[in-house]
Structure formats: structure tokens, C-alpha cells
Amino acid sequence: MLKGFFKRNEGSSLKWKLKELRWELKYAWQRVWRGYDDCDVFGFGDRIIKKITLILEDFIETSSGYPAEFSEDEWNNILKEMLEYFRNANEEYVDENYNFELSEQYDFMQENLKEGMKLFTKHCYSLWD
């Protein structure tokens, strides 16, 4: 994504930056026309987890409605719990925040993804604002 292009390529040669910029523009064009880019296809599972996490973070911050069967606090707690499960299913987040052996890390991430998907499935049609 172009937003962090210069920060990600800080210290790189001009030739490298131009090459990377070409790819970034290609992916931006694909997102405009298809709604997704090749990077989304290459790492579909990881990208979905990251996108759900980003959307949930924004949803929690900006949402003003909640389902009738919950109070506002109950709904916010459900959303925060769902967000935490999806964060803990993201390999980059887990690498930065925990110190696991590889086999333990995979099991931890898999269990969090499972629980996050349960909540997501249960409340999917309530994720509106």
C-alpha cells in the first residue's frame, strides 16, 4: 500500500525504490479494478486475518450502534474479545508480543483463530453501524 511506501523503503537505492513503486502502483490499480490485489491471493489466510483485525479496530472506534439483545458495554466487550482472538491469530502480532516455540505458536494461533471465527460467525450479521 502506498501509505507506508517511503518508510518501508527508507535507505534503499533509487533504482530499488522505482522498482518497488512500480509494484505498488500495479497492486493499487488491481485494488481499484478488482477490489483486491495479487498480494491478497498469495497469502489469502494471513491477509484476511489482518484485514479483519484492521476493520474490527476501526469498527470498535467508530461504531455507534449495537444489537438490541446486548447493552452497549456487552457489545463492545464482544468486539474487543473478537479483536483479541484475531490479533492472536496473526503471526506478526504473535511474534512481536509473545515468545513461543514454533509448535506452541502455531497451536496458540490456531486456537485463537478458531475462537475468533466462532464469534465472527455468531455475530457476523450484527456487524453493522
List the helices and strands and how they pair.
Layout: H1 5-8, H2 14-34, H3 38-42, H4 44-62, H5 72-87, H6 91-97, H7 102-123
Helix pairs in contact: 4-5, 5-7
What does this structure look like?
With 129 residues, the chain is mainly alpha-helical. The protein has 2 domains: 1-42, no CATH class; 43-129, no CATH class. The protein has 7 helices and no strands. The chain has helices spanning 5-8, 14-34, 38-42, 44-62, 72-87, 91-97, 102-123.
What's this model, at a glance?
The chain is mainly alpha-helical and 129 residues long. It is built from seven helices and no strands.
Keywords:
2 domains; 73% helix; globular
Please state the structural category: mainly alpha
Whole-angstrom Rg: 18 Å
Number of helices: 7
User: Shape, please?
Assistant: globular
SSE succession: HHHHHHH
